[in-house]
Write a structure and sequence with these properties.
This protein is α+β, with helices and mostly antiparallel strands. The chain is built from 18 helices and 10 strands. The chain has a 5-stranded mixed sheet with strand order 1-2-8-5-3. A 3-stranded antiparallel sheet has the order 4-10-9. It has a two-stranded antiparallel sheet with strand order 6-7. A hairpin with a 2-residue loop joins strand 6 and strand 7.
Length: 420
C-alpha cells in the first residue's frame, strides 16, 4: 500500500506497445473497465512480474498464486513484515486510525493471532448456520423486490445487491435497522484504502471512516455489555470479557471488518454476476430453464468476474518463483482475478459457463485466509438471483454503458440499471 503523492494520471505508464516492456498498471481507465485482457498479456509475457509503478511483485498464474497463499512458512499476511511499511507510515505522518485498525484485522494477521481471532467468529459462518438463515434471506429478498416490483425498472445495485447483504450482516451483528444507512460511505472509503497504491486523500478519508466506525461500534458495544442480545457482537463481547482472548481494540476492529466484508463482496458478486448473465443470453435462458443450476452459476460468477481481484503477501525469506527471486521483505500481489482466468487451470477461461465443472476458483483466497464468509455470500447470491429471475422473467439491461467503482482490489459496479 504505497502512497501516490504527486503523481498524476499523465505520469502513469500507458498500455505498452507490443515491442515495449510490459507494465502492470491497474489505474488505466481501460484496465478499470476490463482488466482481463491485461491479465492475459501479463501472464503470457511476464507471469512473475516486478512492477516499478507499485513497487510489488505481481503474480498472475493460478499455480503461483495458490502456492504463495498456502505457504505460511515463507509468506506473511502481516504488513509489518513488508520492507516498505515504515516508509508508507512516514509518508502519511505516522500510523493513523485506519492503519492501526487494519493491522488488527484477521486478514492481515499471521498465526497465532490470526488463528485466535478467526476461531472466535468462525462458528457464526459455518455452512450449517448459514443454511439456517435461508428463510430470513428469502424474506429479505422478497421484501426488497416487493418495493420495486411494479416500477418496471430499477438500479439493481441500489435496490437489491447492496441492501440484501447489508441487512443480513447488520442483523447478525445486532446493528439496529435505523443505523444501517450510515455505513455505506464509510465502507466505500475503507474499500478504497485497500488498493496497492493510495493517495493522501484516500488515506485521510479512510481515517475519518475508521473513526466514525469505531465510535459507532464503541457505543453499541457499551449498550450490549449492559443488555446482551442474541447476536454476534454480544457473543464477541462475552469472549472479550473472559480474559485475554480478545482485546477491546480487536473486538472493535473485528466488528468493522465483519460489517464491511459482510456486504461489500456480496454486493459486487450479485452485481457483477447479473451483468455477466444479462450479457450472455444463452446462459440466462439456461438458468431460467433449470434453476437447479444456481449453485454452479454463482461459482462461475465468482470465477468469471470476481469481487476481489488481488491480495498481498510479504516474503519472510528469499523465495524463488520460476527463476525470479523475491527478496525477503518484498511484497507479492497474487492477482486472484488473473488466476481465475488462467487457461492452464480453466478451459476456455473467458467463456461464461454456468454449468462449468471443476471450478476451483480462488476469489475467496486460499489456505488459512480463505474467506470465512464465503458460505453466506454464496447463499445470499443464490437466493437473490433465482428469486429475481423467477419474479422478473423479462429482466434485461437498460443501458450498455457501465461505470465501475474506483477501487482496484475490489471490483464492482456503481449502478446496474435494468428493466423488467
Amino acid at each position: 500500500m504505497p502512497t501516490l503523492q504527486d503523481t498524476t494520471d499523465a505520469d502513469l505508464p500507458t498500455t505498452p506497445e507490443l515491442d515495449a516492456p510490459i507494465q502492470f498498471n491497474p489505474f488505466l481507465p481501460e484496465f478499470h473497465n476490463d482488466p482481463y485482457p491485461f491479465y492475459h498479456q501479463l501472464r503470457s509475457a511476464d507471469p512473475v512480474h516486478w512492477s516499478d509503478l507499485i513497487g510489488f511483485w505481481v503474480l498472475t498464474r493460478y499455480s503461483d498464486c495458490v502456492a504463495v497463499l498456502r505457504d505460511t512458512a515463507r509468506f506473511s499476511a502481516d504488513p509489518h513484515n513488508w520492507v516498505g511499511f515504515e516508509d508508507f507510515l512516514q509518508a502519511q505522518g505516522g500510523a493513523g486510525p485506519l492503519v492501526l485498525m487494519q493491522t488488527k484485522w484477521m486478514l492481515m494477521l499471521d498465526p497465532p493471532d490470526h488463528t485466535r481471532l478467526r476461531t472466535l467468529v468462525t462458528k457464526a459462518f459455518t455452512p450449517r448456520v448459514v443454511e439456517g438463515l435461508r428463510p430470513r434471506i428469502q424474506a429479505i429478498v422478497d421484501g426488497l423486490l416487493d418495493e420495486i416490483q411494479n416500477a418496471g425498472h430499477m438500479d439493481l445495485i441500489a435496490a437489491l445487491a447492496y441492501p440484501l447483504p447489508t441487512i443480513v450482516i447488520a442483523e447478525m451483528l445486532g446493528v439496529p435497522v435505523e443505523d444501517r444507512n450510515h455505513f455505506r460511505e464509510w465502507t466505500r472509503d475503507l474499500a478504497r484504502s485497500l488498493d496497492p497504491i493510495t493517495t493522501p486523500e484516500i488515506i485521510e478519508a479512510g481515517n475519518k471512516a475508521t473513526l466514525a466506525f469505531l465510535d459507532y461500534f464503541r457505543v453499541l458495544v457499551a449498550k450490549r455489555r449492559k443488555n446482551p442480545q442474541n447476536d454476534l457482537l454480544s457473543g464477541l463481547i462475552a469472549v472479550e470479557e473472559q480474559g485475554d482472548r480478545l482485546s477491546e481494540e480487536e473486538l472493535l476492529a473485528t466488528a468493522v471488518l465483519l460489517f464491511g466484508a459482510g456486504h461489500e463482496t456480496t454486493m459486487n458478486l450479485i452485481g457483477n454476476g447479473m451483468l455477466a448473465l444479462l450479457r450472455h443470453q444463452d446462459q440466462l435462458q439456461r438458468l431460467k430453464d433449470d434453476p437447479s443450476l444456481i449453485q454452479s452459476t454463482v461459482e462461475e460468477f465468482l470465477r468469471y468476474d470476481g469481487s476481489v481481484q488481488m491480495t498481498a503477501r510479504t516474503a519472510l525469506v528469499d523465495v524463488e518463483i520460476e527463476g525470479k527471486l523475491i527478496p525477503k521483505g518484498q511484497q507479492a500481489i497474487t492477482v486472484l482475478g488473473a488466476a481465475n482466468r488462467d487457461p492452464a487451470q480453466f478451459p476456455e477461461p473467458d467463456r461464461l459457463d454456468i454449468a462449468r465443472k471443476e471450478n476451483r476458483h480462488i476469489v475467496f483466497s486460499y489456505g488459512i485466509h480463505h474467506c470465512l464468509g464465503a458460505p453466506l455470500a454464496r447463499v445470499e447470491a443464490q437466493i437473490a438471483i433465482n428469486t429475481l429471475l423467477s419474479r422478473m422473467p423479462k429482466l434485461q439491461l437498460a443501458t450498455d454503458t457501465f461505470e465501475w467503482r474506483e477501487t482496484v482490489t475490489l471490483r464492482g459496479l456503481k449502478a446496474l440499471p435494468v428493466e423488467f
